[in-house]
Amino acid sequence: MPGTPERIIVIGFGPVAASLAEGLLPGIADGRIHLTVVSAEKHMAYNRVLLAELAVGATEAEHLGMVDEQRLLQAGIDLRLGTKVTRVDRSRGQVRLEDGSALPYDRLVFATGARPVIPTLHGVNFEPHVEAKLPCGVLALRTLEDATELNQVLRREGRVLVLGGGILGIEAALAMAKAGHSPVLIHHGEAPLGRTVDADGGKLLARGLRAAGIEVVSGVRATRVEKDEKGFTGLATEGHGVIPGDALLISTGVRARTELAAGCGLKVNRGIQTNEYLVADTENRIFAIGDCAEVAGRAPVGLLAPGWAQAGWLANFMLTHPAPRPDAPTEHLDPAIAPPTHHSSDVMMLKGQGLEVTAGGNISAGLWDGGEDHVTVFADPAAGRYLKLVTRHGIPTGFLAMGLPRTSAELVLAYERGSVLPQDRSTLLRLDDPCAPQTPVAAGPDDQLCRCSGATHGQVAQAVEDGCLTVSEVGDACRAGTGCGGCRATIEAMLKVPVPV
User: What is the pTM of this model?
Assistant: First the structure.
């Protein structure tokens, strides 16, 4: 007869928590584990990367789902959706819910994710550690409800202001422009992506965004949200007056949700602080994964792949290492246990509406700075092409490439592999010569193909060899193509290549 099941509670139910739940299914099936998932959102885990596509009507809500609800319920998982946790009582081993009830746990996992950063604006009820109560027409595009609200504005041809010049704000603006709308991108710096591009690259990017149908307003300090009895009417700024609009999409970054952890005495900084084994307490009972976790001093990176890697490791650890007894002395984890690992690249890719921008590393070095850095710059603004490359001992340490897709692909591989580039840097540019042979840049099996999931070329090739016939089937096998969709074309090309017999 099996003993009493171990009680595991997961707080939060995004894609990372869903991956953990699926990984624990074997232990649930054989009666070793009783899993409870508590989430303030009423929806099952879904892909937030595609919310902009949903908002512009390019996809349907059901296509964002990332988990089979019936499968989890039939397995016996206790799903408490639309339920808020008010407190974690570590001394009693309980999670307190908003209705006053308490759930006991043997082990607890924080998968609370991140919330949008709301800038200080008059007219917005802002508190840094709770969900902001935004006025009607002001949203952050982090939930299905946000996407629905934005869709309603766009359907009536409303004017949408996007506050924030980062990658997410730009991608949302590009999605709206592609759908035939005329968004306004408003940001504080001299150019969008100010932390990634240099001055010349920023000017070219702003021009490309305007050519794509986006109005770009730079150097803006927003001060106040204007509204009437129906909701948002405009954004007041210093130096640019009031910029009128029918909705304001705030895209100024995210911050880990740490208040529950802090409230029960756990250490928090840029996230819930854990050791390399994802442990957040001294008793090896509480863990944190995903966008809320600061693992071994590393800040959350906001990508799915590291979170999924953490979830897979933790599921295996919990299946093979039962929770310590309440009366047992605290034990250090076996040093023979390998901690979770995942190589997270800082390469950024932006594509759409005629724009193609790829960047990675640090390009702050100047042409005449001297020292060990070798700086190469190529610019052809009329053709929309720009390259800044920084190398040290021939190895790229930073690059920005615009309008050079094949050169970008080569640089990404060299940057992530730490490969030495040709001594004559101009040979890289020949890859984008339309008269040159169109042979693809060779990618190795360990090179990353899907930047959302972290899936490699080798994993996708194996999925195809194992019989996958569609992008969806490849996604089920290794998660490639389940994020933003930017790798779908590559996967489709691999599906068309006959597998050697």
Answer: 0.89
Q: Bridge partners of 114?
A: 256
The contacts of residue 56 (CB under 8 Å, 6+ apart) are 151, 154, 175, 176, 178, 179, 181
Angle formed at CA 353 by CA 347 and CA 359, multiple of 5 degrees: 15
pLDDT, tens only, 277-290: 999 999 999 999 99
**Partners of 133 in the beta sheet?**
125
Q: Quick one: which of 107, 102, 96, 89 has its CA closest to 32?
A: 107
Please give the full DSSP string across 348-395, using - where no structure is assigned.
EEEEETTEEEEEEE-----TT--TTEEEEEEEEGGGTEEEEEEEETTE
DSSP letter at 186 equals E
Question: What single letter denotes the amino acid at residue 16?
Answer: V
Burial label for 264, CB within 10 Å (0-12, 13-18, 19+), is: middle
d(CA 273, CA 288): 8
DSSP state of 174: H
Given a contact cutoff of 8 angstroms between Cβ atoms, the answer to whether 464 and 435 are in contact is: no
- End-to-end C-alpha distance for the chain, whole angstroms: 48
The residue behind tokens 């924030």 is 164
Q: Say how many C-beta atoms besides its own lie within 10 A of residue 156's C-beta.
A: 7
Residue 30 burial by CB count (10 A; 0-12/13-18/19+): exposed, middle or buried? Answer: exposed
Strand 231-238 versus strand 221-228 pairing type? antiparallel
Q: Which of 250, 314, 272, 319 is nearest to 110 (CA)?
A: 272
Instruction: Look at residue 199 and tell me whether its pLDDT is greater than 60.
Output: yes
Vertex 125, ends 121 and 128: CA angle to 5°? Answer: 85
- Phi/psi at 141 (nearest 5 deg)? 55, 50
Between 309-313, 379-383, 436-440, the lowest mean confidence (pLDDT) is in 436-440
Model confidence pLDDT, tens digit, residues 425-434: 999 999 888 7
80: which strand partners?
38
Q: Residue 367 is encoded by which pair of tokens?
A: 């042409």
Handedness of CA 190, 195, 201, 204 (dihedral sign): negative
